[in-house]
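Researcher: Sequence of N-acetyltransferase domain-containing protein follows. Predict its structure.
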Amino acid sequence: MAGKVIKRVHCHLLNMPKLYNLVPNLEKNRMKFVRLSTKVCSPETLEKQLPTKSLSSRSYRLQMDGNDNLNDTKTHTTSRRSKLHQLAIEDVTFLPIDDSNVQELYKMNEKLFPIKYNNAFYEYVADAPEGYCKLAYTANGDAIGAICCELEDVKILKKRRFRLCILTLGVLQEYRRSKLGTLLLESVISQARKDQLAYVYLHVQSCNKAALHFYFARGFKFVKFMHNYYPEIHPPHCFVLRLQLHATT
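Model: Prediction complete. Tokens:
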């Protein structure tokens, strides 16, 4: 068995939409136009870029794409919907991650996540306990999603128990909203129940509202808020979420 993963990584189940600009509400002439960076990813970041007074009494309407690239956006949306319609969930296959396909996971992570994973991460997932690290493949053999979890030994009420930490869960953008993320999550939860694990938990970056909504909708509960958990990214804070599987008494 490979060594324990040294560094925790946050979950990027779904990317927050990028806001290109704020446009005035044409129904209210008093609205102010504010230009924003394309890298805005959260309300917290957004607020820092706006004058304080503009947040108190003025309302804005968000425009997701500027007029200069509206046609490109429509083309991208049409292409994405086309791929979504072509994905038949019944044709998706889950395969364990091992030495033969760990490079596919590496390439996917490069696309999905803004941080780099160290060698310890890939050494662990390629030799992880059965059922907890897997790739999702289409009928054509394309890797389109993955989930990686770590089995942890923990003492609960002076008894030795095991819990599961979700390290990463990701689906390629063009295949999201196809319930693939849900199926990946349910597959490891099912395995955890069979193995009599106490609970499943994960860390979610505080600005990742899409991921928070996803996990809350699937029974996860808030446990605690951790300051400066991710010192290399902004915001560095995270929420710890947990899904209880078996009683700890």
